[in-house]
Amino acid sequence: MQSHDRLKILVEGAIFAGLAMALEYVPHDVGVSSIQLCYGLIPLAVYSLRRGIVPGFFAGLVFGLLDMWLRGSGSLLNPLQIILDYPLAFALIGLMGMGANTVQQKIRQHKTTQAVAVTLLGFALGDLGKYLSHYFAGVFFWGSYAPKGQSAWLYSLLINGGSFVANLIMGLILMTILVRFTPQLFTRNL
Q: Can you cite an annotated GO cellular component (predicted)?
């Protein structure tokens, strides 16, 4: 890979991470305050499926660091919790790129249904990775906020599980629409 290709990938990743961060300023609490949609998952999913898992990890890492610096000041307890809730959780979004080559191949072959299926599996995997990182941070660091008599494990499951499911539903719907109607977003030659 030539240096201008690497630069193009880095710049594209920075743009997608910036877009993801900008979307975090759109109100995203659903019903009860513990369920939060992460609109930034959508541009990072597109980027991960365009460029693959490693660039997706780095774009997610940048997004997580931006979120920590710009929005996370009230929820920083200690170094391990910070790592679990921000850089690691958001970097795991890059798992969405595991099927990047397959999605692009299916789009080129005009097999949209198969491209959608691989996209949805990748989105679910990335969302699950992010959720698990938040879940363990919740168990080990936020569990002290659990109601009296409730285990930290159940508390974290209830608090983080709603967001996981809400983001999964949002992502599955939006990614299906994007792959069906704008497949060119997922190809590398834009």
A: plasma membrane
